[in-house]
Design a protein that fits this description.
Layout lengths: L3 H19 L5 H12 L3 H13 L3 H11 L4 H23 L13 H21 L7 H7 L12 H21 L7 H29 L10
């Protein structure tokens, strides 16, 4: 399955495209929460399982959380309502503080946030299910960027730090570019696309360094 980088770049890239063609009806608020739910959404279960395994406590409970949350529909049913309330509140704060732009001047409603949570979950598993066979071709290996097909890939702490840093930069810079300011959406969309391309290049460089330059190679992300 793809790591967090492809999930984030896929949804943020498609969201920026929708921002550009919708003339502001699909706002940076929509784009941000859609991308976050595709990235952090169902993989919250995977992260919780990794955390319990790393700490060596409640490992069976972590596996249960993984099996329950890492699901295209259980994630929506269990966390859709609380997350929609949370994201609606965050959207209002971001707009009031001038951190993120909105053409209508109105924050996202709870219903809109619920739809974005659902869209993020389905987009996450859209990518996951494309590569459920663990990529036995060179093209799949390149796309997945893990290079680890023998068994379940271990999650290395340096991979967590690097990928987490790149995704944090992607989210933070996206918010900065699309903050409330008198700039046309076309300019903001162009800057957002360039941002995604820069982060994608750094992500590919990291994956290449772990797979092809490191001896012995190790999974660049871990799944």
């Amino acid at each position: 399955m793809p790591g967090p980088g492809p999930h984030m770049m896929y949804t943020l890239g498609s969201g920026v495209g929708l921002m550009s063609v919708s003339r502001g009806r699909f706002s940076p608020h929509h784009c941000l929460f859609y991308a976050i739910n595709a990235f952090l959404g169902p993989d919250l279960g995977s992260f919780f399982e990794w955390l319990t395994l790393t700490l060596g406590v409640a490992e069976s409970f972590g596996s249960l959380i993984m099996d329950t949350i890492h699901h295209p529909f259980y994630y929506i049913l269990l966390l859709g309502l609380p997350f929609s309330l949370f994201y609606s509140w965050i959207s209002r704060i971001l707009l009031q503080k001038g951190f993120l732009d909105s053409v209508s001047g109105v924050s996202l409603s709870r219903r809109q946030c619920l739809f974005l949570v659902s869209a993020g979950s389905l987009s996450h598993f859209f990518l996951d299910h494309l590569f459920e066979e663990n990529g036995h071709t060179s093209m799949y290996s390149w796309i997945l960027s893990t290079g680890w097909w023998k068994s379940r890939a271990p999650i290395n702490s340096d991979a967590v730090v690097v990928v987490g840093f790149l995704c944090s930069c992607l989210i933070g810079c996206f918010i900065y570019i699309n903050r409330v300011k008198p700039v046309k959406y076309r300019a903001q969309s162009g800057q957002s696309v360039r941002l995604i391309l820069v982060i994608a290049s750094l992500y590919c460089l990291w994956c290449a360094s772990q797979i092809y330059w490191r001896n012995p190679p190790q999974p660049a992300v871990g799944l």
